[in-house]
Design brief:
By secondary structure, the protein is of the alpha/beta class. It contains 7 helices and 13 strands. The relative contact order is 0.19.
Length: 212
């Protein structure tokens, strides 16, 4: 069974409703794989976030028997093996463009697309999970970029959305590309053809903004 979860960011651990969904969905807890956004550098920072999210899982009663990081410290062959066999694959936040570049360089797109199990994206990872990835200046990217993502979900997201400061850029993009504005602590779960929304999420389409 494939389940895809998109997140923006968590201020104080996983929200209780998300923790309950994780308890229900994560029936297999053998192997957790953390796919970094930056492969070549900041390994210490990558490891810090890797351990932070493992602690968040533990705080809601979920512990994995094995866990590893995928970045340049791992060979391409080994990366293919661990991504394919992961019970939970976490696509990290960080540099969105760099992440999709590294995924392509490692030849991981077909591996990610064909694997069974659960995939969780955070911020950059959530953007790249989309069929159409939309990177906005509003979200902190140096320039606007729209490209083919991993195609795990049919929706495009704007992480760290601020409903009190909606930019003209987002309204303009939404004329052609509907977006789901995800406030921090929100989650979108795509499971068995059903979509579940947790927290404050806004649908932005043709210049209109509506709270889901």
């Amino acid at each position: 069974m494939k389940t895809n979860m998109l997140t923006s960011g968590f201020n104080k651990g996983f929200p209780s409703e998300f923790a309950q969904q994780l308890q229900r969905i994560l029936t297999k807890r053998e192997f957790f794989v953390f796919l970094a956004s930056e492969f070549e550098h900041i390994h210490q920072k990558t490891d810090r976030y890797f351990n932070l999210f493992l602690d968040m899982f533990m705080d809601c009663g979920i512990q994995f028997n094995r866990a590893c990081v995928v970045d340049s410290r791992m060979s391409i062959e080994k990366a293919h093996q661990v991504v394919a066999s992961a019970d939970v694959l976490w696509l990290a936040g960080g540099d969105t463009i760099n992440q999709i570049h590294n995924i392509k360089e490692y030849g991981l797109i077909p591996v990610i697309q064909s694997r069974s199990g659960i995939t969780i994206g955070m911020s950059a990872g959530s953007i790249n999970m989309a069929k159409t990835a939309v990177c906005t200046v509003t979200c902190g990217h140096e320039e606007q970029s729209i490209y083919e993502g991993l195609g795990l979900v049919d929706l495009s997201v704007e992480p760290h959305f601020n409903s009190r400061n909606i930019s003209d850029e987002l309204l303009q993009i939404s004329q052609d590309y509907p977006l789901y504005g995800m406030c921090d602590d929100s989650v979108i779960i795509c499971e068995d053809g059903k979509t579940t929304y947790i927290g404050d999420i806004y649908y932005i389409s043709r210049g209109n903004v509506k709270l889901i």
